[in-house]
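Thread: quick sanity check before group meeting

JM: Hey all, I'm pulling together slides for Thursday and realized we never actually wrote out the predicted structure for the chain we discussed last week. Dropping the sequence here so it's in one place. If anyone has concerns about the input, flag it before I start.
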Amino acid sequence: QSTGPRAAIAAASLSFGGGFLLSAIGVATHNIGLVYLGYGMFGGIGLGLSYTPPIQTLIEWFPEKRGLASGLTIMGFGSGALLFGPTAATLLSKFSTLPTYLGSTVQTITENGRLFAESGGKMVEVVYANASDLAKLSYTGLEEGFYVVGSGNTGAAMTLATIGIGYTLAMMASAIAIKKPHPTYKVAGVDTSSPAVQTTNNVHTDNMFKLPQFYALGTSLVVIASGGLGLIGVAKPLMSEVFGGTLPNIVTAAFASSFILMLSVGNLSGRLAWAFHDPSG
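JM (edit): ok, ran it. Output follows.
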């Protein structure tokens, strides 16, 4: 409230987009610490900073439809995977390069538990990929056989960098465009005055940290949110690893991606239903 939505969303754009860029550097340099720091820490901070300002601003613009305004805003937040998933898949396809395929039958030797084969006049490390292994990948058109280890590129680093720049620009544009209503703004027939402060059974913020109910509520929220985010984060590999081996012709990379989209549709539908059934509008 003190800084305003523009400053909060602008800071969020730098943190969120910067987190993607830092993660891209981590992927390119194979530094998992940078990925956690960028995508996890800075991305999470940016997400938290950008979540509340648009909701609060819309509620101030539409006080007679508080539930609907906030519900539609959160619906857009929850349906982000509908756009993010296909965009990421397109970028990965654009930036990725296939690994070097040597054939289904090649002469190999084993040294220290690793396979080597001749390629281009020199010995290179190879790995054999079967249909089940290939079904877990996002590539198409790959054949069973031997592939050179370290060849090819997933395109993940460039994809993260591109998405990070896109998010930064989009969120910064939103920060410039968003505007709070004038303090004198009122909707006819709607009482926008502040409600009376509850004095009976009211707990002051200075004392709430002393109550077990506060920690019980916080724990329940963390557990529920962690379960949902954890499922969404591993939904694609979960589908591929659990069912890819038994149904390789059905559970392809495209099928697993569609499963992610259906989760997002369910997320969107629940928020939309809650918005229209909120008694506050």
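AS: nice. The two ends are 23 Å apart (CA to CA). Strands lie at 101-103, 108-111, 114-119, 122-129, 145-148.
JM: adding both to the slides.
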